[in-house]
Amino acid sequence: MTAHIAGVSMTPFRRRPEATVKALTAEAVEDALKDAGLTIDDVDAVVFTTTMQGALEGQHAVAGQIAMRSLGFQRGPVLNVENACASGDTALLLADQRVRAGDADVVLAVGVERMTVDKAGALAWFHGAWDVHEADATTAGLLALGADVLTPEGVEEPAPEAKSLFMDVYASLSKFHMQRYGLTARQLAAVAAKDHRHSVANTRAQYRRPFTTDEVLGAPTISWPITLPMCAPMTDGAAAAVVCSEATRRRLADPGRAVRIAAVELASGSDRAPEDLDHHLSVLASGRAYERAGLGPEDVDVAEVHDATSFGEVLQTENLGLVPRGEGGAAAERGETTLGGRIPVNPSGGLVSKGHPIAATGLAKTHELVTQLRGEAGERQVEGARVSISQGGGGFYGIEDASTCVTILEAAVTPR
């Protein structure tokens, strides 16, 4: 059984504290169904995700049922899922599984987040995205990875009480890569500058200002080597994907716009040694995804990866096999991962430009890649894109993500 994505949508990612979860959900769902040429009556099941609504608004349960009811979806199954920043990716995985199992012809995957209504509360939420019983040990282990790489003299960092623990963690992971593989701060800046340039052509991105590498390097330091333009902003937004069976795809007004889900694989973190990157969960998940799809990294035309900071893009391009281990930063600096380069990465602008509404992020990547594979991305179109890959990671387990989901999509074979 094969599953396809018949429709996608994402709201503009912005600071929209006045918009409710219901309103954001409605915006994304209605646009996705319109894109597919279907209606809510065609939907057999919904996979819904929002990670912060319980903490910020007190809606601790049945969020999907409540958000979908006003849209006319009643009596059918609603699955509520949470996997931190990989939640949207996981929603797509569950929709894919339900269709391939023959349990449904049309499943709607929806991710929505309303973060800016309570910035302090949103920041506090992150401290529950790892083992709260081992938080001190986890923090110490992560920060120790970069302890041997010293911050250069003259670099001004925020006062300790004003710093973000999670940015310190990303900085430590970056330093570990610097020590082991020679990654430089300038290469990190080149990654961020590339993504900010890409965002200029994305009208749905939160930030659309181009940066040069020097401007990124000269921006305020958050936690060296991480500067402000290397960090994803908090934002509000929703995204959705309509997943359908082959039988439904054939009935669509334009079956050639549907994109085949070649593989979706989910992996969890392990107790691996820091140096054992061959067993990083993204390596394992992507390996299974490539095998299931019958493809390899050499077949990928375009990628969207999780870059809560720009170091994330460096690491994940290596983990997915798109560049050799240790060369993620150098490849970006050479222009290999820019639009027009050998393997464009984050043509949407990535999280650092587009914004990062946690539960919506994975499905926003899906929106970008489906748009690319349809040839409908306009100024940011990757020429001839036929195969795409995305990666989304969530939470922390020890020294790596608690969860990572890797998705491979293929353009339709049916001519449009």
TrEMBL record:
Keywords: Lipid transport, Lipid-binding, Transferase, Transport. PROSITE patterns: THIOLASE_2. It is an enzyme of class 2 (transferase). Its EC number is 2.3.1.176. Residues 283-398 form the Thiolase C-terminal domain. Pfam families: Thiolase_C_1, Thiolase_N. Residues 5-208 form the Thiolase N-terminal domain. The keyword Transport applies. This is propanoyl-CoA C-acyltransferase. The lineage of its organism: Bacteria, Bacillati, Actinomycetota, Actinomycetes, Pseudonocardiales.
